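Next comes this protein:
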Amino acid sequence: MSASSELHAISTDWLKGLEIASSTGDVMSFVSHFLSDGWFRDLLCFSWNFRTLSGPEKIHGFLSEVVDGKSRLEYSGLRDFKLDDHTVNAPSPFKLPGSQVEGVQGAFTFSITNPPALGRGFFRLTQDIDGKWKALTLFTNMQDLVGHEESSTDQHSLSEGRKTTWEEDVDAKFRAIEADPTVLIVGGGQSGLMCAARLGRLGIRALVIEKSARVGDSWRQRYPNLTLHTPAYQSSMLYSPYPTNFPKYIPKGKLANFLESYAVNQELCIWLSSIVGSTPVYDSSSARWTVEVQHGGQKVILNPKHLVLATGSGRPRIPSWNGMDDFGGALYHSDFHTDAEQFRGKRVVVVGAGNASGDICRDFVTHGAAEVTLVQRSATCVVSSSAMEETHFKVPFSGNTPIEELDFCMKSLPLAFLLQLMKSGGTQHMKMFDKELHDGLRKAGFNLTWELSPGSGEVGLEGFLFCRSASGTMLDVGCGKLIIEGKVKVKQGQDINQFHKDGIEFKDGSKLSADVIVLATGNEPVMKGTRALLGDEIVEQLPPEVWGLDSEGELNQTYRPSGHPGLWFAIGPFEVSRFFSKHLGLQILARELDIS
């Protein structure tokens, strides 16, 4: 038997047993297909939420819950399991990075009985102590609601009987959306745009409002040397990959222009220079919001059923220190950094040691600042772009593989399990690629960490991304080398006591003279901006955090029920919005069809 035939046989045998257990509602048998330390991640197949369960007891408990007089397993009625033989996710060998775990992985399709839907799954099988193949991880994912599948057809194909032009069709569509939007999306960055595009394909009227004058301004107006820190392929937009002649790391202006063209090409209805006026009000009897929008010099009242907040990473976080008003030089937050050239020959202090700090320090060095000092108040998780390339992007994100297939495979891994893998060897594996960089940074007085808190385990960059929105990390694209060479000095481990006319004094009594101080101190939590937008009454009904991981390891309130009817949050990196926009769309569609 060939290797591929053996993998296929192992997968087929395991999947057949799982289908029998599912179709007969046999929870005990279904759970027996997992390892004793196996993981189950379900997105919308067994409940209208995102769930991650670890271990047979928790998996059994979830699937045994009673829904309409049946166990959750029997009620959902997953059936018609078929191996995905004809995609890149056909059965194949796998080895988890930084560990000795290896086995067989693959995708499969299935049908769901309640509600009538189509699903797709992904398994990773390894052998137990008795040599039996069982699931280390199982992922089940709703793909479409039957009869309401996502449209992929050309709405403007050639037809002898066509009486309207494309322009007239788009204009009519926009007028229908503006007259009665089912969904109002606040924020026209990449997350808001992808959600609008996805909802449109699902036949849902979505209107986007964006405070800026142009689509893409949220990138266009940021600091000059900003580029994406992840390769273009991984950061592609839903339905619309970047042109093949785009640079690998896209500059912010080029990205901004692409987003502007994306909005046009995806036929998205967007009101620019528009903001929410007074606090939105939700009427539970009609299940609609009343939202006042300031648009085109007028106040417009909208009554959407759903409000999606795609407002990005929050407002600038500007700490308050004594004497800030006394400082005689330029003092501003990194979000407002636009021109390092005007400070040529000046002494610069950048407070903060994350991504923005690194980029801005490089900008000042490039433009001839007399002296650049980075103030690092706490340790930073530093990973070079080359290490990320080797460990994350080089193999999985190849140009020959559809991004949708890679998204599916990557999202099939439970986040809590991923962090467990990072703690048990994955982070150590990544650090090997950066040994020279890390040694040089330590010698220069730069403090490093891969733990969220001392002794909690080295979760690495992934842990900081999912638990802290990447705060406290530097994906290094050159600042590390400048620190090692002494072109960027480091003031480490001391918090600021107060500002003086000519600089900063620290808690230990030391001082730094400066002509320019940039506060690369991050952004406020999303919930703080949400409170300003929606008011205390609604926010008090919500869990305390947006983003970060809940007790099971799923992202808090993000693309899933928020805790308030008709309110959704859509934030995160490109790959998160690209994948989970579908789940947001399915949940909204199910509510519109009254089947959720």
Observations:
- The two ends are 46 Å apart (CA to CA).
- Residues 379 and 448 are 5 Å apart (CA to CA).
- The mean pLDDT is 95.
